[in-house]
Amino acid sequence: MDLTVQDLACARGGLPVLEGVSFTLRPGRALMLRGPNGIGKTTLLRTLAGLQPALSGTISAPPEAMAYAAHADGLKPTLSVEENLRFWARVFGQRDIARALDEFNLTELAHRPAQNLSAGQKRRLGLARLLVTGRPIWVLDEPTVSLDAASVALFGAAVAQHLRMGGSALIATHIHLGFEAVELDLTPFRARPRAMDRFDEAFA
Ligand SMILES: Nc1ncnc2c1ncn2[C@@H]1O[C@H](COP(=O)(O)OP(=O)(O)OP(=O)(O)O)[C@@H](O)[C@H]1O
Description:
The protein has helices at 41-48, 81-91, 98-103, 119-128, 149-164, 194-202; strands at 3-12, 15-25, 30-34, 56-59, 66-69, 137-141, 168-172, 182-185. The chain is of the alpha/beta class. The chain has a single domain (3-202), classed as 3-Layer(aba) Sandwich (Rossmann fold), CATH 3.40.50.300. The strands form two sheets. Strands 5-6-7-3-8 form a five-stranded parallel sheet, sandwiched between helices. It binds adenosine-5'-triphosphate. Adenosine-5'-triphosphate (ATP) is lined by residues 12-13, 17, 35, 37-43. InterPro entries: AAA+_ATPase (IPR003593), ABC_transporter-like_ATP-bd (IPR003439), ABC_transporter-like_CS (IPR017871), ABC_transptr_haem_export_CcmA (IPR005895), P-loop_NTPase (IPR027417). Residues 3-204 form the ABC transporter domain. GO terms for molecular function: ATP binding; ATP hydrolysis activity; transmembrane transporter activity.
């Protein structure tokens, strides 16, 4: 499924952050969001994932086509690794968790409560959840935080496999993940201060 974004504007905390954002992400492709801290990468991803409304513009794909992985891992702390994956698989109407355990090197940790995992292991479990959503468009916010080099490589391989299977990925990250991707720098889309616009109008 294509994700086409046209002339999107979005806000955070009531203030416009980005405007005029347009791109198309096709099946099998990855798009890396770049830009300095605070430019609005998280805000854009949250808007696409349906967690907040856009100020204006259009998003061709519905949030139901997307699997969103935020900064927080969103794990159930008292459930085991396997139980967490089964829980999420059920939520998304899927059954197979074996691939998720395998691709994120979680098989040996399958019976460990999530609350007893290290930060990097929790992150791996949070990302493994993507594989049990069955959703084609992965929307990922700084997915490699807490991951060591080996886990970054595992994650890169999982995304590459998702792309080969016809999925797509939109990723806010500052690092290179080892597969071919187009980059979109959000710096030119910084919203102009609206308060100043109104000020000009009032005194025109
Ligand atoms: N909860 C919030 N309430 C109000 N403003 C916020 C909130 N969270 C972020 N902002 C502001 O919104 C703007 C965009 O933030 P956002 O988190 O989308 O940027 P980012 O590009 O993802 O940054 P980073 O690279 O640091 O993660 C920033 O100016 C930030 O200060």
